[in-house]
Write a structure and sequence with these properties.
48% of the residues are buried. The longest helix is centred in the N-terminal third of the chain and has 14 residues. The chain is globular. It is of the alpha/beta class. Helix content is 39%, strand content 16%. It has an eight-stranded mixed sheet, with helices on both faces. The two termini are 22 Å apart. The chain has a single domain, classed as Alpha/Beta hydrolase fold, catalytic domain (Rossmann fold, 3-Layer(aba) Sandwich).
Length: 294
């Protein structure tokens, strides 16, 4: 792994394989090491240069120092359908980070694939940096309209209790969260070593709070999505309680000519039993690109 300065922040990244570039954009609080090996290997083995990285305030990338508004204020902003005030950066800034990474590495344009918050960042990349995105895949995400893809009321009631209070309880708290938001095939026992590795590599609860605030403080991307011309695939799980399926549907409706793939046994996770289908669908979307990524 290496780091590079881009858009005024230091970004930790890893590049694997050779061929047309694929940028994988991780979600809220996630790290580049959280991508399933089977998924990354799937792209590498199919002949793609695959780039993973830590978003700002995650992993080993730059950590900011502003104090995010509390979770109650964030939830209230969603309930009132208003942008959260008092945020130091937004999804657009994180998209500029990702675009800056491609530029700094002289890797681009690229196929861009993002999950959850990473899907939002990927959408913003395609809108704000169209010359760097030749195809878009948005997974378990939403367009930011504060109507579609919201958290279920049941999960919202438990949100505060799911926050990690110390490094010592971070693993158990993460697994408890994944059980609540994952689909029917989520296995906490197999996930435990991966969570332990992530906590050991980097533990940044304040960074996750800032990323959450950045999401809540970002504008609606719907009008920008309507202007997109790149091949777009939207993937969502019908069991997702964190970003309800309406988020994927609204995203697909906004992008003309997009394709929507929904798995009945998928929650807010990447189920191992759907890995091959997911890779096939994403690569099929790559093939729709009018200009191949170099």
């Amino acid at each position: 792994m290496s780091s590079v300065e881009a858009n005024g922040v230091s970004i930790e990244y890893e590049v694997r394989g050779e061929g047309p570039p694929v940028l994988l954009v991780m979600g809220l609080g996630g790290q580049l090491t959280d991508w399933p090996e089977e998924l990354v290997d799937g792209f590498v083995n199919r002949g793609f240069k695959t780039i993973v990285f830590d978003n700002r305030d995650s992993g080993l990338s730059s950590e900011t120092d502003w104090e995010a508004p509390g979770l109650p204020a964030t939830i209230r902003s969603y309930l009132l359908r208003r942008k959260l005030k008092g945020v130091d950066y937004t999804i657009d800034d994180m998209a500029a980070d990702a675009a800056g990474l491609l530029t700094a590495l002289d890797i681009g344009p690229a196929h861009v694939v993002g999950i959850s918050m990473g899907g939002m960042i990927s959408q913003a990349m395609a809108i704000n940096h169209p010359g760097l995105v030749v195809s878009l895949c948005s997974i378990m995400s939403n367009p930011g309209d504060r109507r579609n893809g919201m958290m279920t009321g049941r999960l919202m009631m438990k949100a505060r209790k799911l926050q990690s209070t110390s490094r010592e309880n971070a693993v158990e708290q993460s697994l408890e969260t994944f059980v609540l938001i994952g689909g029917e095939n989520f296995d906490p026992d197999s996930q435990r070593p991966l969570v332990e590795r992530s906590v050991e590599r980097s533990y940044r609860p304040e960074g996750m709070s800032r990323q959450t605030a950045a999401i809540a403080g970002s504008p609606d991307r719907t009008s920008g999505l309507r202007r997109l011309k790149v091949p777009t695939l939207v993937i969502h799980g019908l069991q997702d309680p964190l970003v309800k399926p309406s988020g994927g549907i609204a995203t697909a409706k906004a992008v003309g000519g997009s394709r929507l793939l929904m798995f009945p046994d998928m929650g807010h996770d990447l189920p191992a039993n759907r890995t091959d289908e997911t890779i096939d669908a994403i690569i099929a979307n790559f093939s729709r690109a009018a200009v191949p990524a170099r």
